[in-house]
Design the sequence.
């Protein structure tokens, strides 16, 4: 089970660091946040929060308690993404897009919690 937590933590960590940095000026995130009515400051804040979650996931490979905390951190970000999609009255497939990431992040926490 520990190998599963390491692999998931590494994949999620790298992904969230990349996605977080994209919030600083990637064309799609800039347009997306404007479309949903969010400010540039909020976009940057979300990017920082995603980078922190990703870094903590990576650190969690070596530190169990950090991995346990990183999962809910990322899950909260994903709940925020779902709320945004719901408020925008998007299709169910768009609303549900964050769910696999939310589940995987929580899985890393649970695996580390029970080890």
Sequence:
């Amino acid at each position: 089970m520990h190998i599963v937590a390491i692999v998931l933590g590494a994949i999620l960590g790298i992904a969230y660091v990349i996605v977080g940095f994209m919030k600083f000026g990637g064309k799609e995130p800039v347009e997306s946040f404007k479309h949903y009515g969010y400010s540039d400051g909020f976009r940057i804040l979300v990017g920082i929060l995603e980078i922190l979650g990703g870094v903590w996931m990576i650190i969690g490979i070596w530190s169990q308690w950090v991995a346990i905390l990183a999962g809910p951190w990322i899950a909260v970000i994903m709940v925020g993404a779902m709320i945004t999609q719901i408020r925008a009255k998007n299709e169910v497939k768009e609303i549900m897009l964050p769910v696999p990431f939310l589940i995987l992040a929580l899985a890393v926490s649970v695996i580390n919690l029970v080890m």
The two ends are 8 Å apart (CA to CA).
